[in-house]
User: Which sequence fits this backbone?
């Protein structure tokens, strides 16, 4: 049932709209903030189909990462060295921008390093063989070795005896990040409407008619920042990718610290509030996880629990408290799609599971397509 809008509501929210942003995730909120900064008198409206940001912005694991060693080695199979360097550069710059905009304290940023764990000695040796080359490639950006070797100091089981450590990886509190971003947006006079779903849009000369499940209205410019849901509105090469996550009840004397990647990053875990947050397993069913439906599957959840209890905390009583999923946007290339689609329509999508790292920068770049 459509809402019954009053004259006041129509005038205040849906009349003389300069910029409309679809999606209130990291990209959409940063896009709106940059538009407000560049055009302080503009009327800016954000539309969000969820009660909270959908997709992955408030559903991720809070890794402030830019790529494990095995991931970057894999990227070199399909990208040039310059392309991989630029991917890491953009992720690193995006993380610094996020920290600058919100402040480390407000997002509980900690640089506790990232550790890659290996199930086989073969993969470890292969990565070790290419470690120096990757460090050399990234030297101009970090001025020291990104990747070094550590022994199994957290005493995980069923893995190779050494980790490869990312000395620059960090972590954030995803909820605090999103709340602070929303606070900044609202204090800038930008309006957000939740639980409203954009169904399509039609460009008419100098305006765009935006059709939602509640109302159709006009805006001068439209910015689409829906990432994993992009295909519902755009004809762009963006594949949805669901990520399943679980979190334990608090664990006394939980000893792990940092962010951890296992099996080429298809599994990832960390300590948050004395709990283990553990996600991944998409590689068990790539096709099945190419979905925009939230939820969990027995196959992946069972595997997460198995690894949790046999590898991460093998001698500890563990209880699962909660499970959820997020929807990422991926493609055959890691480069994001930030472009002008027509005179009045723009998009910033396909963040490739690196939304925390690059979302702020992509949002800024999306807004600056207006320049």
Assistant:
């Amino acid at each position: 049932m459509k809402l019954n809008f009053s004259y006041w509501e129509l005038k205040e929210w849906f009349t003389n709209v300069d910029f409309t942003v679809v999606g209130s995730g990291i990209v959409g909120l940063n896009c709106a903030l940059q538009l407000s900064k560049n055009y302080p008198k503009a009327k800016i409206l954000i539309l969000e189909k969820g009660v909270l940001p959908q997709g992955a912005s408030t559903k991720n694991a809070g890794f402030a990462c830019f790529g494990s060693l095995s991931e970057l080695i894999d990227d070199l199979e399909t990208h040039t060295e310059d392309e991989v360097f630029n991917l890491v550069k953009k992720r690193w710059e995006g993380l610094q921008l996020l920290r600058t905009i919100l402040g480390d304290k407000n997002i509980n940023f900690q640089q506790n390093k990232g550790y890659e764990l290996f199930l086989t000695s073969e993969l470890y040796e292969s990565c070790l063989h290419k470690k120096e080359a990757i460090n050399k490639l990234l030297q101009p950006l970090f001025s020291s070795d990104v990747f070094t070797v550590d022994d199994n100091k957290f005493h995980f089981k069923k893995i190779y005896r050494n980790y490869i450590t990312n000395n620059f990886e960090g972590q954030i509190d995803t909820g605090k990040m999103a709340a602070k971003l929303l606070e900044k947006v609202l204090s800038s006079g930008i309006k957000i409407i939740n639980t409203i779903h954009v169904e399509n849009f039609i460009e008419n000369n100098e305006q765009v008619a935006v059709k939602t499940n509640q109302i159709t209205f006009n805006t001068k410019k439209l910015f689409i920042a829906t990432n994993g849901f992009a295909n519902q509105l755009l004809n762009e090469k963006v594949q949805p990718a669901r990520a399943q996550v679980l979190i334990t009840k608090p664990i006394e004397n939980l000893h792990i610290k940092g962010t951890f990647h296992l099996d080429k990053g298809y599994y990832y875990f960390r300590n948050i509030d004395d709990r283990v947050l553990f996600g991944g397993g998409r590689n068990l069913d790539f096709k099945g996880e190419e979905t925009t439906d939230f939820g969990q599957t027995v196959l992946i959840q069972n595997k997460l629990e198995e690894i949790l209890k046999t590898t991460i905390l093998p001698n500890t009583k563990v209880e699962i408290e909660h499970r959820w999923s997020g929807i990422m946007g991926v493609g055959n290339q890691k480069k994001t799609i930030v472009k002008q689609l027509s005179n009045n329509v723009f998009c910033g999508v396909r963040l490739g599971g690196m939304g925390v790292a690059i979302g702020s920068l992509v949002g800024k770049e999306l807004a600056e397509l207006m320049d």
